[in-house]
Amino acid sequence: MRNTQATQLIFELSRPGRRATVLPPLDLPVPAASELLPAEQCATEPPQIPELAEGDVVRHFVNLSTLNMSVDTHFYPLGSCTMKYNPKRNERLASLPGFAAIHPLQSAESIPGLLQVLYELQEMLAEISGLPGVSLQPAAGAHGELTALMVAAAYFRDRDEPRRVVLTADSAHGTNPASAAMVGYQTRTVKSRSDGLVDIEDLKAKLDGNVAVFMLTNPYTLGLFDSQIREITSLVHQAGGLIYLDGANMNAILGIARPGDFGADLMHYNPHKTFSGPHGGGGPGAGPICVRDFLAPYLPQPIVVREGDEYRLQTGSPTSIGRVRSFFGNVGVLVRAYLYIRTYGGPGLKRVSEDAVLGANYLLSRVKHILDVPHGDRCMHEFVASAAKLKKRQGLSAMDLAKRILDFGFHAPTVYFPLVVDEAVMVEPTETESKETLDAFAEALFRITDEAADLAHNAPHTTRISRPDDVTASRRPVVRWVPEKGDH
Amino acid sequence: MTGYLFHTDEDRRQMLAAIGADSIDEIIDAQVPADVRLDRPLRIADGLDEMSLEAMMRQLAAKNASAASHLCFLGGGAYDHFIPAAVDEIASRGEYYTSYTPYQAEVSQGNLQVMFEYETLVTQLTGLGVSNASLYDGGSAMVEAVLMAFAAGGKRHKVVTSDAVHPEYRQTLDTYLESISAEAVVVSSDAAGSSADSATSAGVIEQIDDSTACVVIQHPNFFGRLEDVEAIAEAAHRAGALLIQIFDPVSLGLLKRPGDLGVDIAVAEGQCLGNPLNFGGPYLGIMACREVLIRRLPGRIAGQTTDRRGNRCWVLTLQTREQHIRRDKATSNICSNQTLLALRATVHLSLLGPQGLRETAEHCVRKAAYARDRLATNPRLRIAHPGPVFKEFVVRDIEGDVAELMQSGLDQGILAGVPLGPWYPELDDCFLVAVTEKRTREEIDRLTAAFAASLAAV
Fold first, then answer.
1. Are A78 and B15 inside 8 Å of each other by CB?
2. B157 near B182, Cβ under 8 Å?
3. Residue B325 at interface with chain A, using a CB cutoff of 8 Å
4. Residue A195 has what pLDDT?
5. How far apart are CA A169 and CA A220, in angstroms?
6. Domain ranges of chain B
7. CA atoms within 13 A on the CB side of B407
8. What is the sign of the dihedral through the CA atoms of B96, B100, B106 and B109?
9. CA B275, B88, A85, A350: dihedral to nearest 10 degrees?
10. Does ipTM top 0.90?
11. End-to-end Cα distance, chain A
């Protein structure tokens, strides 16, 4: 049954003279390329890439695909990543040549249908966030954060306020401080209380006229909605700072609460999470941002604007921070987000969040007697459990749970994040899983905690490989294939 | 209700009973204060069923011109290259596109091995020792390369570049440099074409000094012309600066590899390797560098190791460079890569092989030369630069009405070129024409005829 064509590398499958691609005959009254290009610019050899037949290529990559877990094949409760079902109709429709074959430098007049889609998406994102200024340009969530911080920096520059500090929560995603550093800000960390909420006293102590932005996530990383959010945002506003909302957890609050209404001034969306754009094995995503009206003049351009029935691309604003990438944005991902939102509509989106909350709370209620959930027995769309007691009592760490659950045919939850929870196990089931799947996952966890711990220490047992040696990989990096002696 | 939800009323009732709540609202109200709850429905139209959604989208798609409905001669960093069916087939497997970052290596060997193969292909193409698993796009890869050079260059604060580097890449760089104390010196490349050589090199070399962290050169450049990369590399290294080359992957079917030209960091837009145009994204940022720079490389890297049973396998490696560990000290804030597009590029290159890539490049060069010869026969048009080009070139309209020429092309079903005026006021009478292997002799003749028709109309 097992097939070595997956695990051999394409370089090892290569045989001299094999080929898949044949170009049409070239019949032109011009000289060969070797005469058109200067000899000193040309390589003497063809590129040193492998030689394969089409059948080799297809069998290799199809077999390789079967070594992945994916949403199409498995329950994937990876906390903070929102691994929901990726609708097939969106794949079909985003691939229509009338969208997918548009060149980025075509004139706006030649693409009214696409501009209408993008304009309506801007409007829908503004409505969902309660923040009217929208840029679709950023290429990923982290890129959206960076762009929003650049917008904030331009705003303060305009006001002659040399604020130098960005505050981040200690439970925040690592991209928050990394993005702030790239915009030249010093970062300071605001502590969480033992219940996970922002420590208001610590925030007050760190708030002064030097703070530009407080970056926070709400619902925050523990899967809880910070009930002090009004107080936090007004404290920051009183100190003249801005609130940035990391939109990673928007799947919990669609149509329930809007960042603009609870005090956020800037935010990004992760359409590949919230709006089901597939995760693509790690990318592409997109990171559109929404801002308050007084920040909109600083957004990157182009932005789609509507004049009567016409759509055009607005550029050339002198206050804009400029571009943050080449071309318009990750349009393929954005079109899928548009399709997703149009499929559910306003009331449907609220139902999405309600079912996401229901699923997470249900799973929490099923597992809380075996897995400690330090921050209470209710949550929004995800919860963070701790394996600390299991580890002490039975020697089962978060890593052991993650590895053993793979043997039951489930992807692992996120583990060891957020850093503020010891032996963290972060579970986000999403709204597109049935009660039966959630039950089966809970029962697999029960079995693991009943088994001998050794089974988990050596897990997974059913996968082709188990517990790769990361330390050696990092200490002696092998990051490209090199032919062994005797290979051609 | 339209959508993808699972729960029946009975499911919801049982789940709420297990939770011990009367309603979902009760769970939410206990956490979300009443004064921040939205007290009205979202103002977004009701949901659409699949048939209605498809009908609407087909109508909207039909309103757009595209490289599928029109003959495409547009370039400037994105190209209408041929995409073999096997690329689409493989990339449409759910095991690839509905998976995520390989946090659990045991159930992500498919993606990890693809990343490793992709990285190896990039090193083979570029002649450089190490590649990351990809970045957002060509423009942000260029910016990341510059930031890498600043980090490696200590107090050096200057980047020297040329106006023959993609204008949107330079605009992106300007945006990033606004935040840090660094300056970009942009050398004029004689874009207007008064000399036969491509001509950035002399001007660029002149600007390199001991405050220069890096030089950024595009070869073939934005106008399709070839640069003297070796001379620039020598000058850069003499001054202790790094050389960054933006390359065209397809051109490496014929041209010398960046590593063989003395380049330290090579970046590219990988759209041309099996990825759809998509109005600008998602695209594929390719980045490779010399091995000594490996720990400064941004983005994910897949590496080879063995598992506890001794099997060869792949993992994400050198993660101590990255934001989830280093936070504000990370080499970059980037926490993703374009795996799906890197997969497409890997499959595409596997299908092309050395001969296919070489022949593709040969087609580009000769078809561009043919198009140039044909357009030059139109008395209204001039070829701006006489020297060699790879797959695109600049055409001047002596009537100075590029918009009219482009419109007449569009009216005849042709996306005829990219007007240069918006980026280069001095080239307001010029446009860029790109010719890939996909264009046939007959199609190039149609472009020529379309312009001849507009000549007749003048």
1. no
2. yes
3. yes
4. 78
5. 9
6. 9-52, 71-83+355-457, 86-348
7. 6
8. positive
9. 50
10. yes
11. 29
User: 């993606």: which residue's tokens?
Assistant: B111
Domain B71-83+355-457: give its CATH architecture: Alpha-Beta Complex (3.90)
- Euclidean distance between CA atoms A88 and A387, whole angstroms: 37
- Rounded to whole angstroms, the Cα distance separating B76 from B85 reads 25
CA distance B135 to B296: 14
User: How far is CA B302 from each of CA A9, A479, B6, rounded to the nearest angstrom?
Assistant: 14, 6, 37
CB B424 within 8 A of CB B167: yes
Would you say B333 and A246 are in contact if contact means Cβ atoms under 8 Å apart? Answer: no
Angle, CA A190 vertex, CA A221 and CA A136 arms, to 5°: 55
Q: β-pairing, A211-217 with A165-169? A: parallel
**Confidence at B196, pLDDT banded by 50, 70, 90:** very low
d(CA B333, CA A422): 25
Q: Give all domains of chain A, ordered by start, each with its CATH number.
A: 4-65 (no CATH), 89-344 (3.40.640.10), 348-472 (3.90.1150.10)
Q: Which fold has domain B86-348?
A: Aspartate Aminotransferase; domain 2 (3.40.640)
- pLDDT-based confidence at A191, cuts 50/70/90? very high
3-state DSSP helix/strand/coil % of chain A, to nearest 5: 40, 10, 45
Element (H, E) at A366: helix A331-367
For residues B375 and B448, the answer to whether their CB atoms sit within 8 Å is yes
CA-CA-CA-CA torsion sign (A357, A358, A364, A367): negative
> For residues A459 and A407, is the Cβ–Cβ distance under 8 A?
yes
Structure tokens, A406? 């793979």
> In a 3-state reduction of DSSP, which class is residue B218?
strand
* pLDDT of A342: 98
Residues 333-372 of A with CB under 8 A from B: 333, 339, 341-352, 354-355, 357-359, 361-362, 364-366
What pLDDT is stored for residue A2 in this prediction?
63
Strands B414-415 and B71-72 come out as parallel
State pLDDT tens for residues A235-252: 999 999 999 999 999 999
Compute CA distances B323 → A182, B271, B289, B302, B332, whole Å: 11, 27, 20, 16, 7
Q: Mutating which of A327, A333, A350 best tests the B interface, going by the most B Cβ atoms within 10 A?
A: A327
Structure confidence by residue, pLDDT tens digits, A278-337: 999 999 999 999 999 999 999 999 999 999 999 999 998 999 999 999 999 999 999 999
Mean pLDDT (chain B, rounded): 94
What three-state secondary structure class fits A413?
coil
**CA-CA distance, B182 to B213, in Å (whole number)?**
10
Residue B457 has pLDDT above 60, yes or no: no
Q: In this predicted structure, what is the pLDDT of residue B188?
A: 87
Distance from the A40 Cα atom to the nearest Cα atom in chain B, whole angstroms: 8
Please report which residue ranges of B244-377 form alpha helices under DSSP H: 258-261, 323-326, 339-376
Task: Tell me the one-letter amino acid at B99.
Answer: S
B45, B66, B108: residue with CB nearest A102: B66
Between CA B231 and CA A31 the distance in angstroms is 28
Give the three-state DSSP class for A203. Answer: helix
Task: Look at B74 and A106 and tell me if their CB atoms are within 8 Å.
Answer: yes
Query: From the candidates B23, B24, B43, B57, which should be mutated to test the interface with A, based on the most A CB atoms within 10 A?
Result: B57
Q: What is the pLDDT of residues A91-116, one digit of tens each?
A: 999 999 999 999 999 999 999 999 99
- Cβ–Cβ contact B194 with A under 8 A: no
Range 91-120 of A in CB contact (< 8 A) with B: 91-93, 95-107, 110-114, 116-117
Give chain A positions within 8 Å (CB) of B131: 479-480
Residues facing residue B436 across a β-bridge: none
